[in-house]
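Re: weekly structure request thread

Next one in the queue (71 aa):
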Amino acid sequence: MSILNTAFKLFLGDKKKKDLKLLQPIVQKVAAFESVMTSLSNDALRERTTTFKQQIGTAVKDVQDRIQLLK
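Done, posted below.
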């Protein structure tokens, strides 16, 4: 089986490496976001949380309206 797996890797490439290559930019964005968040004070984090809640509320308003119409 290992010979077969090696042959597949030669022709198709390594799935693990492809997955890591795909996920690496996302990991870098998360790390950058983490450094920004850790630099904020508690009051700034509370303000940011309020902003996020407002953005989420605005984003799901259409869906909630549709749900209310269906009820």
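The mean pLDDT is 88. The longest helix spans residues 42-70.
Next request, please.
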